[in-house]
Amino acid sequence: MQRHSQNPVLTARQVPYPATLVFNAGVVYHDGRYVMVFRNDYGRDGDPQFDGTNIGLAISRDGVNWTVEPQPLFALEDVQAAFRDVLRHRYPANWVRRIYDPRLTVIDGRIYMCFAIDTGHGISGGVATTEDFKTFQWLSVSAPDSRNMVLFPRKFGGKYVRLERPFPVYMREDPEAFPIWCGESPDLVHWGHHRPVLGPDEVPFANSKIGPAAPPIETERGWLTSFHAVYKDPNLRLEGWEPQGWFKTYHSGLMLLDKDDPSKVIGMAREPLIMPEADYEVNGFRGSVIFPCGMILEPGGEVKLYYGAADTSVALATAHVDDLLARIEPF
Amino acid sequence: MQRHSQNPVLTARQVPYPATLVFNAGVVYHDGRYVMVFRNDYGRDGDPQFDGTNIGLAISRDGVNWTVEPQPLFALEDVQAAFRDVLRHRYPANWVRRIYDPRLTVIDGRIYMCFAIDTGHGISGGVATTEDFKTFQWLSVSAPDSRNMVLFPRKFGGKYVRLERPFPVYMREDPEAFPIWCGESPDLVHWGHHRPVLGPDEVPFANSKIGPAAPPIETERGWLTSFHAVYKDPNLRLEGWEPQGWFKTYHSGLMLLDKDDPSKVIGMAREPLIMPEADYEVNGFRGSVIFPCGMILEPGGEVKLYYGAADTSVALATAHVDDLLARIEPF
């Protein structure tokens, strides 16, 4: 893939409200413009203590130059009020801590957002829908722990399908070797037919957790699907704020899922799609982290991949879809 | 509660096939007889290494004297074949290791079984249905990790409801402080409206994980619901096989859930319903473990509670429902 010359395409400096780390952005092309929702951890100023997280909205005509809307999508209080209703719970408002890592998918012309939510009981994954990014309908929240949910842009046999990344720790040798699973739903509210898609032991460049990255794009050969893959090396001293040293490299991987059964991996690129090499990927809050959350297939065959770089900014890389497919080997 | 004089009511000696630890049994009254499905860990012979786990079936006319059917419900190979189909996965057969801890609920005259399933990706909870305990229809398997699922015996607004025990570890101070959650389903296949029911920090006699125990029973005041609650004391040296010493006491707790919104706790007994005291509760494979999986409300008001004792046998305790309700304090 080619990194864009204007990288990073979004940084905290472009945000007209308090913003420190601007990364992990879902992107879709919708209604004649590119729409991005990004995670903003604000108030850090180089300090790992931070004030909070919100989600910002940015618009672009070309997918490269972005204008950030004047306000974040919601105030924390709005999120807490929404989930208090959804979860029907009796816990204090601060039981819901934040929502983050949004991914966007357009299905039948409507926008859906998957997200992670931190609560007093752990991490859940959720799905919401909106027409205008002002009013959201909160459709579902999973039991904890799960996150990195991404929706496919069309239905399969009348069912919505999503990939997700549960956090199973029991009965396993490596407590952080988390896999990718898949589920389907008639209504985006009730989810079933959960099944395993890919284990971290099946990825040559991972020795720890993996997870869905951007929502898959449809090609003639199947669903081209990015994922993140973590390689841990305690001997590495990577850039980052963590006082005890940061030693996890997040690569982006690429796999092909069966056109009709998207739980079935039929191909994989044996090498990472991108490895952290550029300055803005290697240096930052958590260095050497590439975390794609948005992938767009242009009519001419160009693929735009938007990824969080070093948990600090949003970067863009491009490739022709045929070149990406050429890297896929049978799985 | 009164322990039954014939306790334990089921031990490995009553099982006509290899059986070592016979415990955690779901029980319902159905078609004029008591029906029990129990977990059987076989081949241990006092050794923590064991050959496997299956599920046995026992029948009783009085709920006290049980006759075990000649064969376990399914061979491991049958379970593996069933889940290979359900999960549509490409992993080897031994990726599915066992199913265990069954609970039974009768809804509209039909028998449903919830169970835990250990796989190469962790622990899932599942739901199946049967008419004859010969043929099972496998309805759903959750993403990992979750278990201790129990179904309510009736629907709420047309939806099935279950309690479950996810294993959230991220973002939490105590990695084993697992809570009780609730979900609902139109068809027992797709599950949604997940919401928190009870955290371990809300149980006076727990300092670690809690989980649903037997399926709830309906009373005039609400759903009388047992749960297990773990109290860890590393200074204790409890009976058991674990070489490093066993120090977890499993109490049974009792709570009352709202009649119309079963995710809402409206009352709780401040003291455990039963604490491990009898010889068969204190001594065994894991001593001081009381783990109810079956609760029956008789027409006269007697409540029968069936519980796994020391992960070794099945015991029975009884009480009048009014006496149990009298122990419930507002929550």
Written description of the protein model:
With 331 residues, chain A is mainly β. Chain A has one domain (2-330): Tachylectin-2, Chain A (5 Propeller). Chain A contains three helices and 22 strands. Chain A has helices at residues 76-87, 279-282, 321-326, and strands at 2-3, 21-30, 33-42, 52-60, 67-68, 96-107, 110-119, 122-130, 136-141, 146-151, 160-166, 180-185, 192-198, 210-212, 217-219, 222-232, 248-257, 265-269, 290-297, 302-309, 313-320, 328-330. In chain A, the strands form five sheets. In chain A, strands 14, 15, 16, 17, 18 and 22 form a six-stranded antiparallel β-sheet that branches. The first copy, chain A, has a four-stranded antiparallel β-sheet with strand order 1-21-20-19. In chain A, strand 7 (110-119) and strand 8 (122-130) form a beta hairpin. The mean pLDDT of chain A is 95.
